[in-house]
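INFO  loader      accepted 1 record
INFO  loader      residues=497
INFO  predictor   begin
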Amino acid sequence: MRTSLARRRFLGSALALTTLPCTRLFAAEGGVYPDVEAVTGDGRQVLLRGADVRDFATRLRGELLLPTSAHYDEARRLWNGSIERHPALIARCSGPADVAEAVKFAAANRLLLSVRGGGHSFSGLSVAEKGLMIDLSQMNSVRVDRERRVATVEGGALLGALDHETLPLGLATTAGTVSHTGVGGLTLGGGFGRLGRRFGLACDNVRSFDVVTADGKLTVANGQRNKDLYWGMRGGGGNFGVATAFEFQLHPVDPIVLGGKLVWAWPDAPDVLRFFFEFATTAPDELNIDLVLLHLPNGQRLLSMDCCYSGPREQGDRVLAPLRQFRKPISDEVVPQPYTKLQASGDDANAHGGKNYIKAGFVQKSSLGLRDVMIATIDEATMPVVHAVVLPQGGGAYARVKTNATAFAQRAADHNVFVLTRWTDPSQGAAVAEWSRNAWKRIEPHTHGFYVNEYNDDASRVSTTYGPNYDRLVELKTKVDPDNLFRLNANIAPRKA
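INFO  predictor   done
INFO  writer      dumping tokens
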């Protein structure tokens, strides 16, 4: 019988440990590790003995970084430049065996634990302040089985790497809209993308997970084994373990799509938005539109649509014609182009190090009331920063999956809406946060639940987000992580004994 993917990886990593030289290039100077101050998951201060830290380091094939290590600052740095956190320890894992050792060390010492894949979260919860951070960035391979139409992706891989390997073969799966986003975080939270209305969420396309659970065991979760865990990891975020690898179902896709931006002058925004609400309900699955109301630092305001039509190329212009004809855009950049180029088109605007603040929610049914408050939000923006109200499209294949088929419950939503602000001046942070929270107070009544990948201090809304799936998720959490080791996320707390 064929050895499972998880077992092959685990054995490979474990056997590699026996061949390591005695001298650890990454060890503390002189081979002596200092005592390390850290915090537990419930916030208590603890002191980790240097001898225990040394023993942990020797069990890893990858690096164990301390605040004095050469690559420490590089490893803890996040995409969202407004987040500055300092873990007590960073385990740069080389494989699933390293991840298992890190989880066991965190559990034994009750440490605050975080998992960093691509480091692309708005909340920065992938970095545990004074805790242990598991860094998966060195685990970033993507392998494609063309005959089976399956991609095996390690937990630290980025979306651009997945697209790079699959599109030349005429294959793809749903994979976000910014190429330097991590595959793991995007998928565990659901995973919207330009192909999502056609093929479903990223998590809908996962055939199997390799996962290290809170007891430090490496296991497989799929439709045959650990079915409850498989169900929960498709949309339940990082609550149930560390996903060290994913098997994705791939689909035939033309590497050339019709895509780009349509931009309208601000006075046309009310009519264009009203028309879009109607148009979106009948748009074909092959068309994805992310609508953006934008305020630029110079005070200019615009409405744009980021479009991707992945269906038959000869039909693309006909599908987009109503948008182009209803109100003539002031800029039309929608052209045939490589899908990989379109996927990277937002990379610069979303570059690492920029400061970001977000509030988000699902819109079950679009309305003129929502339209008016979205426009008013941008109309009234005055700070010299980028303010955006973004309205990605729902429907299509997202909505054809039953609510209880996966942990992701927001299947019926027309849209996901979020208020996003970007800035560079550190002195503006407090003002940006205040503006964003006030703006969101006006939009939130039009929403129900939120997209957990846009989590930002929304703990009170987690149960609403998962709706009828919440109680089942609590039971799963209580079973696989009763001590809430994996808590730095849109947390589903285990039931207390």
